Amino acid sequence: MKRFFFLIGLVACGSRAWAADDTRAVDVKASHATFAVQHALIERVTGSVPIVSANVTVGADGTTPAAVDATLDPAHINTGDGDRDGDLIGSDWFDTK
After folding, report:
1. Other CB atoms within 10 Å distance of the CB of residue 58
2. N or C: the chain end with fewer CB closer than 10 Å?
3. DSSP 3-state assignment of 28?
4. What is the pLDDT along the chain (97 residues), one digit of tens a residue?
5. Which residues on adjacent β-strands are paired with residue 8?
6. Are 37 and 5 in contact (CB under 8 A)?
7. Nearest to 27 by CA among 53, 46, 63
8. What is the rounded CA–CA span in Å between residue 83 and residue 93?
9. Are 72 and 91 in contact (CB under 8 A)?
10. 0.85 surpassed by pTM
């Protein structure tokens, strides 16, 4: 089964305070998307995927993120294992070769 859970660490830049329902672009050079999956119940695999673009919308309270919209680049996934990365970008998974 093809399941990935992504934890996206986003840093939004700006000097003014956030207002309720405010949407901001994310500084993708200062942000990252990481993931962790359990492989065959034996090994925990972690990695990262570059963020192409992202926006964060703050909720009605003006402090809590209500939504995150991000576009990731799976062609450049990095798990620290070149063979695994090659499999992930192949047709069995992300099909980005």
Report:
1. 20
2. N
3. helix
4. 344 444 445 444 444 566 667 888 989 998 889 999 987 888 899 999 999 999 999 888 877 888 999 999 999 999 999 999 999 999 999 999 8
5. 33
6. yes
7. 53
8. 13
9. no
10. no
